[in-house]
Request: fold
Amino acid sequence: MRLQEKISNSLTPRDSHMGMLLRVGELAPEITARAAEIEAARRLPPDLVDRLKSIGLFRMFVPRSHSGLELDLPAGLEVMKTLTRLDGSIGWLAIVAGVGGLFAAAARPELYQQIYQDGPDVAICGSSQPAGTAERVADGYRIRGRWPFASSCTHADWIGGFCIVTDGGKRVPGPQGKPLVRAVLLPAHDWEIEDTWHAAGLKGTGSHHITLRETSVPDIHVFDVDAAPRLSGPLYQALRQWLPLLHGTFSVGLAEGTVDDLLALAHTGRQQLYAAAPMRESEIFQYELGRISADLGAAQAFHEVQVASHWRRALSGTLNDPDLLVEGARSAAWLATTCVGIADACFALAGSSAVYDSSPLQRRLRDLHVGAQHAHAQQRQYVEVGRLALRRAAEQAC
Reply:
């Protein structure tokens, strides 16, 4: 066992968590200084990937049995939020790193051992859209497809995609009459990456399309992410229940960073054209800042309550509940909308200086709007939230 892994295994989760936050703080000035470089490259520079790997980003949710940190979910989310507060693209990629570790936990044991055979610092990414097909054949599956939004694919070690299972060219039925969907996970070199990520925001995430062309895949590389947990511990009970919480973490962290940037601008003594006083002395500015602060505080509190509620359920072994998935979706949608509103208000308060590429406020604004377009944060999630509210009310009335 390598020295770094021995040290990792000797630390408690709290030690690991606090150590990661300390090292993120040390890296913060460099991240801020390189924001324009990250956007221009449309990916995370390899040396920064290595720095984040050394911090432990890719091993946060890997079990201690495989030399990972196995952080409690709230602790891992705090690390992700801290990175998001510094830079939206890096925060998004930190969330992908966490999801990758949880996603792999659903893989078959033989595949899991293969993924982590050389250590826990493995970058895993993919696309959750069922944009491929997995045709059953004698020795496994024949996979083909083209998947969008594969964030982190430019530095991934393993890449996954969701597929509709077919047999003889016909879709195999799954639960509730829907098509049967399975995940495929392969080494990154087996995938083709198409350079398609020219986007309005989150420019540095390298969220390109990925392709497989008639690829023969053994059974062990195809699995059901909703199957019974293969690993013990509260983190690994159910993947889908965690996903909305990670999106909420992104929204809140980026909103906090937006307010940080607005306050930094105000403290420069900036006075806008035709204004009677510098920004920080203006009652109009103070009023709007107070309203923004209230919105941010509400978002922070809501997110903390939702995370704590989910984690309690995980500790009690009752996380895999469809109602919790709806509750998480409710928080993700509300937080996305609220935090986009915070970014819009900060951008407007900053005045004309915010329109330049050099302003972090315009980047925060774009990143939050793009993040809010994700399926887990979309307003249509409120339909299921409303149905759940009606069902609970009817149950209470009985």
Observations:
- Strands lie at 124-137, 140-150, 158-167, 170-171, 181-187, 192-194, 208-217, 222-223.
- The radius of gyration is 22 Å.
